[in-house]
Amino acid sequence: MICAISGEVPDEPVVSKRSGLLFERRLIERYIEDHGKCPVTKEELSMDDIVLVKTNKVVRPRPLQAASIPGLLGIFQNEWDALMLSNFALEQQLHTARQELSHALYQHDAACRVIARLKKERDESRALLALAERQIPASMAGVAPAAVVSNGKRAMEDEIGPDGKKIRPGINPVMIDELTECNTMLSAQRKKRQVPPSLASIDELERYTQISSHPLHKTNKPGILSMDIHPSKDIVATGGIDTNAVLFDRTSGQILCTLAGHSKKITTLKFVPRDELVVTGSADKTVRIWQGGEEGNYSCIHTLKDHTAEVEAVTVHATQKYFVTAAKDNTWCFYDISTGSCLSQVHSRRLQSSLCALAYMCIQC
User: Fold this and answer.
1) What are the backbone angles phi and psi of residue 73, rounded to the nearest 5°?
2) Where does the record place its WD repeats (predicted)?
3) What averages of pLDDT result for each successive group of 10 residues across the chain (365 residues)?
4) What's this model's pTM, rounded to 2 decimal places?
5) Closest alpha carbon to 305 in 337, 330, 327, 290
6) Cα dihedral: 339, 341, 344, 349 (round 10)
7) 328 burial class (0-12, 13-18, 19+ CB within 10 angstroms)?
8) Residues 288, 300: Cα–Cα separation, whole Å
């Protein structure tokens, strides 16, 4: 009673009518289903040719190998080897899965870094585009002719005179009267001014200590070269080596706005509180006028390129309608704040210090 397929005693023996061979029922059914013929004689065979053999339920005899101790040890060894092979295959699959997971995580991290870098570049590009869009109308307005009448002819500001220098409109008598009136009024007030009792003494200044520190500019280019305090607000403006000017709210300890546009360090800056303006001078030979907006942002409305060397100092006149700049090219320029036009440019080899020159000119005004 041995199955012709498995070589073991079958649990449900069946016999083929055609060949008379004995089979395990489940095995022959699967084989007929797949091939449709006898596995031994290769003749056509169907389930109708299979006859079930009725047998008594007896205990299956022990395999021959399990009849002795060496046989049992062999069986155990084979089972152990199969278990170890299965465990090794599982470890290999686990190792492969870990490598695939690590590679997927690395790709995900790299993709996140690329996306973050692209977003940063996109935001910077948008900021530069918005800055350019704000500067184009201002630059077009700055190109508008500021003309004066000279010898019956209308001269443009950017026209070149016989000496090879630009023709400037000059300071007209109305401006001189305005400056003189302002000077007279301030002089009268200055004579009546008294030393305030809240003025700190030298001893009190020596006892001053630092209570806070705020890194406003880029750490890769540290250094502040100029500073100004708003006369009516608790706001401090600083110009740094990183080519940016920063407006800082001392009360809240927050940066209100960063003025970016200069290509080199900012050497000087001043507030013009009447129209919420900020004037900055830079080592890139330019002066910029920044206009404050409703949301606290500042945009450049004028870029002045009258100097040929580093701009060292800016001074705003008390009327808050004009300002003066001085540079290392031994010139100082007198500007109209509202139009951004240079009314006069004076060349002098005696300007050893632009800051002293500006202070002297303001006293004269």
Assistant:
1) -60, -35
2) 259-291, 304-345
3) 85 90 91 89 90 77 73 87 91 94 94 94 89 70 44 45 68 84 82 79 83 78 85 87 87 85 91 87 92 81 89 89 89 88 80 50 46
4) 0.53
5) 327
6) 130
7) middle
8) 7
Q: How many residues does the chain have?
A: 365
